[in-house]
Fold this protein.
Amino acid sequence: MDQGMHAGYLGLLIVLLLASLGARRLPLGRTIGYLLSWAAIFLGAYLLFVNRDAFRPLIDRVATDIRPATPTVVGKTVRIAMSPDGHFWVDGRIGQEKIRFLIDSGATMTALSSDTVRKGGLEVDTRRPMILRTANGDIRADRVVIPTLKIGSIRVETLGAVTTTGFGDVNVLGMNFLSGLQRWGVEDRTLILTPKAST
């Protein structure tokens, strides 16, 4: 849509607004107040539209946070659609707790937030800390074991993980989870997880 059409639509909206206010015969002060309020709304909407690419990461993050991440199960295969942010998010269960995970093949280990460890009632081993290298530098992490993890039809027992306050509120399923499957891969923006026959 070119600038001329933008201006035409904006002009039409202004004319309709003025006609509506004129028909209501409001006092001048209230009319000016309404005009200023609508002008602010139109300006905000216009700026959002013009700068929509700059706001795209925020919009994608919000869409990812509110979108259900329930996997589709076909037989024993679990299919996870790519989220608007380009990642694969899935809701799983640690015991009876529903936990959202980011599945990341670039992560060596599964990582849990401190809140997830608390909610899952998991025991942290502080005797053998690990040093993890991240984009923000080295951080200390403690080991933890997930007794039972369920992702759709996939059930994993005694999965090793790490935890640290430096992870924020994100939980990550890493390669130690993926390598325990019979097969995994991405097809048509869908992550396909196939458990081993004994899973």
Q: What stands out?
A: Helices lie at 3-24, 28-50, 52-66, 114-119, 175-178. DSSP finds five helices and eleven strands in the chain. Residues 10 and 199 are 60 Å apart (CA to CA). The longest helix spans residues 28-50.
